[in-house]
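Lab notebook, page 48
Experiment: co-folding of the full assembly
Goal: obtain a model of how the components sit together before planning crosslinking
Operator: M.T.
Materials (sequences as entered):
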Amino acid sequence: DSGVTQTPKHLITATGQRVTLRCSPRSGDLSVYWYQQSLDQGLQFLIQYYNGEERAKGNILERFSAQQFPDLHSELNLSSLELGDSALYFCASSTRTAGETQYFGPGTRLLVL
Amino acid sequence: AQSVAQPEDQVNVAEGNPLTVKCTYSVSGNPYLFWYVQYPNRGLQFLLKYITGDNLVKGSYGFEAEFNKSQTSFHLKKPSALVSDSALYFCAVRDSGGGFKTIFGAGTRLFVKA
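Observation: model returned without errors.
Model output:
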């Protein structure tokens, strides 16, 4: 158990809908990262937050947004969902140290029908 | 721009034999290098990392990796493979010179046959 929690574990929804994925980092970790893992694209970095502020952006679609709250939990919002958004979404957290190790949550499996 | 390559989609090895999973990287500054393992239906687990210092890094479950700056490689190794090592392995790199992105390789699936 990494100490990172993600909810829900599974999510089934329809095209055009909007969903919110939630992540609670390890106790004491200030950074939260979001990744998308699909069969054909591997593990893609989406976005990173550090202590409430956006720190780095990867291949995140405009239909997707994220935020980190004062209690350090984070939410990833996915809107106008398409079939191709079906994937595993991972959250990871880390401390602030350079060369930081990221600790991954169990993921949320999203299926868009 | 930083990048990481895992040239093998799959590695097959017999139990008890040594294993190597290859990784090469490209960064503009000095690299921070990581190996993670993913078991079915699980999140990624940290195995080991290279930040600075000794080029040979030892990690969890008997794995080790060697940082080779001239060949820009960070291959994962284990002297004696176990069936339970069968999983998906990811190499990742972050440029210590700036930026906060960690880029992951495409992953290499390791099969260890009994």
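Interpretation: Residues 83 and 112 of chain B are 5 Å apart (CA to CA).
Next step: discuss with group before ordering constructs.
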